[in-house]
Amino acid sequence: MTLDAAFTLTAGRFTLDVAIEAADEIVVLFGASGAGKSLTLRAIAGLVRPDRGHITVDGEVLFDAAAGVDIPVEARRMGYVVQELALFPHLPVWENVAFALAGTRPDRRRRAGVALAALGLEGVADRSPGTLSGGQRQRVALARVLVRDVRLLLLDEPFSALDDAIRRALRLELRRLQRELGRGALFVTHDLREAYLLADRLVVLDAGRVLQAGAPDEIFSRPHSRRVAELLGVRNLYRGRVLATAPDSIEVEIGPLRWRCASWEAGLAVGDAVDVAVRSERVVLRRGDRPAVNGLDATIEAEEAYGANHLLHLRPQVGGPTIEVDMPARPYEVLGVATKKDWLVEIPPADLHVMRATGDVPA
Amino acid sequence: MTLRRPSGITLAVVLLATVFALFFLLPFAGLIWRAIEDPRAREALGDPAVGTALRVSLITTLISVALSLLFGTPVAYLLARRQIPGGAVLDALLDLPIVLPPTVAGVALLTAFGRRGLLGEPIEAFTGLSLPFTMLAVIVAQTFVAAPLYVRAARAGFEAVDPELEAIARTLGASRAHVFRRITIPLARGPLLAGAVLCWARALGELGATLIFAGSLAGRTQTLPLAVIAAFEGGPLGLPGAVALSLVLLAVALLLLGTLRLVAKRGLA
Fold this sequence. Notes:
The complex is a heterodimer of chains A (363) and B (269). Chain A has 363 residues and is of the alpha+beta class. Chain A folds into two domains: 3-221, P-loop containing nucleotide triphosphate hydrolases (Rossmann fold, 3-Layer(aba) Sandwich); 238-356, no CATH class. Chain A contains nine helices and 22 strands. Chain A has helices at residues 37-45, 93-97, 105-118, 134-146, 164-181, 192-198, 216-221, 226-231, 329-335, and strands at 3-11, 14-22, 26-30, 52-57, 60-64, 69-70, 78-82, 152-156, 184-189, 201-206, 209-214, 236-245, 250-254, 257-261, 263-264, 273-278, 284-286, 295-306, 309-316, 323-328, 342-346, 353-356. A six-stranded mixed sheet of chain A has the order 7-8-9-3-10-11, sandwiched between helices. In chain A, strands 14-13-12-16-22-15 form a six-stranded mixed sheet. In chain A, helix 3 (105-118) crosses helix 4 (134-146). Chain B is 79% helix and 0% strand. Chain B has helices at residues 8-37, 39-45, 48-80, 87-99, 102-113, 120-127, 135-159, 163-171, 176-187, 189-205, 208-214, 224-232, 238-268. The longest helix of chain B is centred in the first third of the chain and has 33 residues, at 48-80. Chain B starts with 7 loop residues before the first helix and ends with a helix. The interface between A and B is medium-sized, with 23 and 18 residues.
């Protein structure tokens, strides 16, 4: 299966302008709510009509504005599952699954039974969807799309309404199913962890546009822009200027601080305005000698504990921006951070990623 | 322990409620009492004229309800999904027959479908057929006043069906028609049935529009309510006949009411 979709559509004041490609893999559409993730799936499913562009699956044109092609929803063979699941409340489970199947009643029932069994659901065929648990309902919704030979799975936050434990189990199961079936899936989520766990390819959407697409590791370690870094949970983002470039690193000035950075976007030159990203888990508090590069003295100004981690806000003693450090409880206790407030901070150059400056810096 | 004495307000409410209940109960009691007390009323029940009026009423109202369902269902659905251009106008227009005095409806129908009417005149010129004073005219009058009640109820019923369910059903490979039959209609079943029963009740009681547009010809356009009027106005059945006819209407009305209650209960389950 190959999907090639590129289209624009306007809904009220919102404009969606996306290009998405997928093969037999899980492509995660990741973004904040309102980014246009669900609208993208609805357009591919055929439930909303783009203004311009095309949607092609395996070379077959499902939609082409210029050529006037618009294959109706029911003929697109998409496995579309939404968070609310939309099970038909008046039909028993098996008729939900067999809803659009042709054939005799016993035959439809048998096929529904096979699909339900493939998802580990037995003995619920005659029950009403309303009597099932959340996880069971979720499986029924998946069985309902997998009972047919669908070309592509379109999954719109299908696990969001479930408990954490069930979500984890279903994610693993989805991975297994996707491999077994050899079908591609577009998976929409705003949950960073879910995105990372499931994605073969990650597409970051924001305000109706694709900001970055690629392998998840690549995007996590090398975001293209400040906004992508923000969406991926980077807490330390600084506006600065390139001081010097070398083959293996570049030097950036951020207020009174000077950092050597080993990860950067191509094409940066001395004097360029840049955004520098450091994940708060990558900042090190040290005892002992001052490191050769990127060491600075800082004071803990504030801290908050959440679950097993501590988030520390450090102010460099020479001035400059606050640095947030995320530290698990164990090193926090071993180092005695609770009582000692002045620290030597080190940021390894490999963990400093430099991007061309975009947008306004939040005050 | 002391019992609290009922307050003045409680007493007043009980009194008002009793008077109100009696006000509604007494006329029915009177009707039944008259039927028991007056042997002529009981005899009139067996009069062929009563059976004829009942037959006219049942035939015309059943066809009127069928027409209301046939034309009203798609309209109600499109109104619910706001898919008709000028839907707001149609919506307002549908309220009109509900609030309009039926006699006005009758006159209006005459000006449209009467022998000198907007559409009636050309139809008669081409086909020689005229609508007024036929059973078809009764059906037209009943449908005109009763169909909007069905459309109202059906529209509300369709609005309560989540469009997302229909959308998902289509992504599963079902045609629009299949989705409508298997998802939309079953999920709106309660309100649809309730609307149909209301529509039938309204058609059954229709008087003013029918009298003006279709007249009161025994065996052809004289429905049960019209037969009651005819009996009162010195017809052969007389007052006992009017009582007998009223009893028949009451029985049918109770049957309808019972059905409505049953439907409402099922709808909740």
